[in-house]
Design a protein that fits this description.
Elements: H1 2-19, H2 24-40, H3 49-56, H4 60-69, H5 82-96, H6 100-113, H7 116-121, H8 133-136, H9 140-156, H10 167-174, H11 182-189, H12 191-203, H13 214-228, H14 232-245, H15 248-253
Length: 260
């Protein structure tokens, strides 16, 4: 009875929060708006349209979305308040195919790397690159952990530490079976990663340089963590333990349904 009452009360609280506009996305957007205001040093909490564009990545497709949103003449708007910022942010996320949470994290990390003046000086981008955050945003601890994981993976594959790894090799280390479509999903949502892998193929017709370098390995690994809802350090530890229990030959001798 107590459990039923607790669940009922929680449902009321969640419903009330939603009715009041207190969804997770709304809270994230409020924080993102605050970050953008501080980053762009905007007066009166009104972010100039161009500064919003720079904050979002100075992407040509985003500029077209801004123009469309403001009736083809965004310069008439004195600035973006929280309402306009949130609506535009959601539109951009929807059309990029990313979550508000991930893109807000990406924009915050990007703002920490460059000032408004530096962002304004960059050339305009023409593609929706880096659409999934797991490919572009890693904290320093995650980078360190994934570099060690990449080395561990190459050792398990008996590859020199200066070599990249192949897709099938990555799948073996991660215990992915033929029915997993996580790599296809990752590449579909990360065009820049896809282009980077293709570049490795084109510049190395003999495949002496495999397609997955440390950057793609890290992004793909984190993408898997995000889809599974686990921390990077935990999945890294799990794969290291699995690798320690069997070598590559033993793994390949297993039937597909027993590979994990």
């Amino acid at each position: 009875m107590f459990i039923k009452v607790t669940i009922f009360l929680l449902s009321i609280i969640l419903a009330a929060n939603t009715a009041l506009g207190q969804t997770d996305d709304d809270k994230i957007l409020k924080e993102s708006y605050k970050n953008c205001v501080e980053w762009s040093n905007s007066p009166k909490n009104l972010i100039p349209t161009n500064n919003f564009w720079y904050y979002m990545g100075k992407n040509g497709s985003d500029y077209e979305r801004i123009i469309t949103y403001f009736g083809n003449n965004p310069r008439q708007i004195t600035g973006l308040d929280l309402k306009h910022f949130s609506e535009l942010f959601k539109i951009i996320c929807t059309e990029r195919g990313v979550s508000v949470k991930d893109w807000a994290a990406s924009r915050k990390a990007n703002a920490e790397k460059k000032t408004l003046q530096q962002a304004a000086a960059l050339e305009r981008k023409e593609t929706d690159d880096g659409s999934i955050i797991s490919y572009t945003v890693l904290n320093e601890k995650e980078k360190e952990i994934l570099k060690k994981s990449y080395d561990d993976c190459r050792r398990w594959l008996n590859k020199p530490l200066e070599n990249n790894i192949g897709i099938s090799e990555f799948c073996s280390y991660m215990g992915l079976n033929r029915y997993d479509n996580v790599i296809d999903n990752f590449l579909e949502k990360n065009r820049d990663a896809h282009a980077r892998m293709n570049e490795h193929y084109v510049t190395n017709p003999g495949l002496t340089l495999a397609p997955i370098d440390i950057q793609i390995y890290s992004g793909l690994f984190k993408y898997i963590c995000d889809t599974k809802g686990v921390f990077v350090k935990h999945l890294v530890a799990q794969r290291k333990i699995k690798a320690g229990k069997r070598d590559l030959a033993k793994y390949l001798s297993l039937s597909p349904e027993k590979r994990d």
